[in-house]
Amino acid sequence: MSADSSVETVRAMISTYHKQQTTEEFLSRFAPDVAWYDHAFLVQRVGHEAVAGLLKAFLHCNQPFETKIKSIEPAQSGVVVAEIVWHGRAVNDIVRPDGEVAVKATGQAF
């Protein structure tokens, strides 16, 4: 995949992140061994199942939610680095499968 193609794939994923779509549609943009790093929340997820869980939990917690791309650049070995501004309001708790509250809803906008 070319650098331009990789950048466009990431751009498409980011622009549809908050839009209604099936889990399969969302995951179709990623390799099965996708590695997702979110430095703002210190979250790392690897693989389709883990990334799908993160998407579901995040969208449940943050409503309304939208994304804006500040910059997006290709890096080495097919990696794409994106700086994204997220806007939303934390209205629902994020609860882990074991029932522990991972993120407490504050109602605050971000």
UniProtKB/TrEMBL annotation:
Residues 10-100 form the SnoaL-like domain. SUPFAM superfamilies: NTF2-like. This is SnoaL-like domain-containing protein. It comes from Friedmanniomyces endolithicus.
